[in-house]
Amino acid sequence: MASAHVVLAGLDIGFGNTKVVYSVDGGPRTEIIFPSGAAPERLLPVQGDGTRSHLGGRTVEMILGDGTPKGSEVSTWVAGIETHKVQNYIRPHSANFTSSQEWSALLRSALDRMDVARVDVLVAGLPVAEFFDVARRQALRKSLEQAHRISASKTVEVRKAVIIPQPLGAYAHFMERLAAQGKTLSPDSLVLVIDPGHYSVDYVLMQDSSIHQASSGSSAMAGRQVLEAASRLLYERKQVRISVDRLEAVVRRGEPTLDIGVQQVKLSALMDEAGKLVCDQVLKGLEGVVNGVGEGLSHVVLAGGGAPLYERYVRAAFESPSTLVDVAEKPILSNAYGFWQSALSAHQLLGAKKVA
Fold it and tell me: In this structure, what CATH number is given to the domain that contains residue 189?
């Protein structure tokens, strides 16, 4: 296990993937990405020798019950798996994701993969619509700031947690990239950040460090709706049902085709057609939000796992001689990188307060 003086981490647990960017004692930033599938070990498929296949995931221990020795039960979960291979299991898709057992298992798996004994500052995000619910924000911070049991012999302590709106991570990452290029923005510049994920498309309108709350929010027309549309198109044309979870796994792995029995379907054209059905609806709403501000945008920042799907439509809707569209080299990690940047700022601020 790594010995560290200071561990800073940005954690982005999405419905599709879990992303972590962290540093140990001022060293280089390390990236971790794994599928956001988690389930009790007892539901995983049985192998030929009678043992359970962990499907490439990692085991973590979950404490169920009231937390007392007599009222608690230890349950073994496996996190970081493709859920379409799990028996009799339905993934959670709701605004209560951060309070679910699946989310807790993914958190523990992320901490386990970091291989540290503690995290000094951890920054995580909430969808914009949920962030402005103070009780939800405080509950998430409280659930993070504790010693998390990974197994009987391993715990990882999170000393301080900071919760920010999801797309602010991508905005911080964008500002970091601008600074690295020697560029700055006017404090009056308006920047729209669009973060299409699996469960929601989050967006914030930023002016310097301020959020235009009335022009920020979330849309439910996200990655899952694209996959559902693709699944419907497949059934209409091939009369074969393919689950959304299986389709998601194939897309995540970057495979160009989908096997349907002895047939193969090219995914690029299918996903483009499904994506247009969903993206057009979201961007029409966003254009209305931006037009209501009455001022032009300097930049549109596109982040998240759905960025490759949205890019062509975002450029068509917003790019102009006065508005630049920015897409990071690794958009899926943009929020996690920005969260790490926020963790660094929070740690520096804490240090400055101690000195004062």
Answer: 3.30.420.40
